[in-house]
Write a structure and sequence with these properties.
six-stranded mixed β-sheet
Length: 466
């Protein structure tokens, strides 16, 4: 693998030795090793630490002053040395200035320090001033540090895309973001817009997105990259930039966060970015069906029958089950290019959140070996996911009297599974396929993971295909 240094890391993490200067050391410890840390301090410093109430608990810190009243050092409590979020609570809490890793009882790997610091510095500031300037961390450059910062940059990209309101992140804006990533890393960009979708046989994408035209025309976004001799990987992301539910309209509470319904597209684009940036030996084919599921006189309706690119006829039971409808045309097109593997990301079902909550993406996979690689990487990298079954007996929930099948399972049973099974119709069994039902959102703030858009499971996926 070639490590690309074409972009500077986030400005809060300094890796260029020429830019290094005197910095305040951060000494890390957990509760068990706190006595060892205190033994390194002077009696005055120990009394200060005890008075401050520092006990080495994770995500706590105290600043030990010097004789002039400045900061002599920072004592940081961490869970353990391998915590990928070890320093994430510090950049926006420490006074602005330059810090470095000191020699405490626990040694934080430089790559974990850089990753957690870069994401701990994140604030979405598109519409208001960001407030205080984050503190800086200087760490020595290495391949691991560069790779960690690349992952942090990709995660910040997902957050920015998901956090942006739909007024500024419609299908055209999403296309512009994809075009920029292709331009930056040498990918070939292409898109089909509006009536071109019908002319080129993407009828399902057009059906869902047509009600938002002409202002928000539906489109299919494509990036191709890499040596054709390398194994082909198709990456597909659901790009529903806003979901009203269509004629089966959502309530106010259900619609409030629907700017994040393009979270799957943000994941697909971030993965494409990392593949191109790292020059992985992969032939990349990235696809994003980008639409706004809106309401108009030409909205697709409950009871309509839509023909898909694959030739299947779908009876629409629920216009709010639109993500799978736009994805099916993209998956069919991906299959035509004969990939070895297909990975799709989608904010597809509330049922996955009922089953697993907001922090665990649901993984559905038709290849046990591929799924095992994902799960192993997820544990190693603390990038959680949970495998769910493709229980094909539940295909009976899609039975239709007038079409090949419906777009929504009956009875409300197994909603995440049935959504995955719908997509399964469009991927031949001989193609390795993984579907991630992601929430793409932090519902509470944690160190390095503020409330708002989030990348989930992607670091584990990247490690599994690298």
């Amino acid at each position: 693998m070639t490590v690309s240094r074409s972009r500077s890391p986030p400005v809060t993490v300094i890796t260029d030795k020429k830019s290094f200067r005197k910095a305040i050391p951060i000494l890390a410890s957990d509760r068990a090793r706190l006595p060892k840390l205190l033994a390194k301090l002077t009696p005055v410093q120990r009394r200060w630490t005890e008075t401050a109430g520092f006990e080495g608990a994770a995500n706590t810190h105290t600043i030990v002053p010097d004789e002039q009243g400045g900061a002599a050092m920072v004592l940081a409590g961490v869970r353990d040395a391998d915590d990928v979020w070890a320093l994430a609570n510090l950049p926006l809490k420490l006074p602005a200035g330059r810090y470095e890793l000191g020699k405490g009882p626990l040694t934080i790997p430089a790559d974990n320090a850089a990753f957690s610091w870069a994401l701990g510095s994140y604030k979405f500031a598109k519409y208001r001033k960001s407030g205080r300037v984050p503190a800086e961390l200087q760490v020595e450059d290495s391949t691991k540090v560069v790779l960690a910062l690349q992952c942090a940059e990709a995660q910040r990209l997902v957050r920015d895309l998901v956090n942006t309101p739909t007024e500024d992140m419609g299908p055209e804006h999403l296309a512009n973001a994809a075009r920029e990533q292709a331009r930056q890393f040498g990918g070939k960009y292409r898109e089909w817009v509006g009536e071109q979708l019908l002319a080129e046989n993407f009828p399902a994408i057009h059906a869902v997105g047509r009600a938002a035209a002409p202002d928000r025309q539906p489109r299919l976004i494509e990036i191709t990259w890499g040596n054709p001799k390398n194994p082909k990987l198709a990456v597909v992301g659901k790009g529903v930039c806003f979901d009203t539910g269509g004629l089966d309209i959502k309530g106010a509470e259900g619609m409030r966060l629907m700017k994040k319904d393009m979270g799957g597209a943000a994941h697909a684009l971030a993965l494409a970015r990392l593949i191109m940036q790292r020059k992985l030996p992969i032939r990349l084919h990235m696809l994003i069906p980008a639409v706004e599921n809106n309401i108009s006189s030409n909205s697709y309706r409950p009871g309509d029958v839509i023909k898909t690119r694959a030739g299947h006829h779908i009876e629409i039971h629920n216009t709010d089950a639109e993500g799978r409808v736009v994805l099916c045309d993209a998956l069919a097109y991906a299959v035509e290019q004969k990939p070895k593997t297909i990975i799709d990301f989608a904010t597809l079902t509330g049922a996955a959140r009922v089953a697993l909550g907001p922090e665990l993406p649901a993984l559905f996979c038709n290849d046990d070996k591929l799924a095992a690689r994902f799960e192993k990487a997820a544990l190693t990298l603390e990038d959680p996911m949970w495998r769910m079954p493709l229980w094909r007996n539940y295909r009976r929930f899609f039975d239709s009297d007038i079409a090949d099948f419906t777009n929504s399972g009956r009875g409300g049973f197994a909603g995440a599974i049935t959504a995955a099974l719908f997509l399964d119709y469009f991927v031949p069994s001989e193609v390795s396929w993984a579907h991630f039902d992601v929430y793409s959102w932090n519902d509470v703030s944690r160190p390095g993971r503020p409330l708002g858009g989030e990348m989930q499971g992607l670091r584990a996926v990247l490690a599994s295909i690298s």
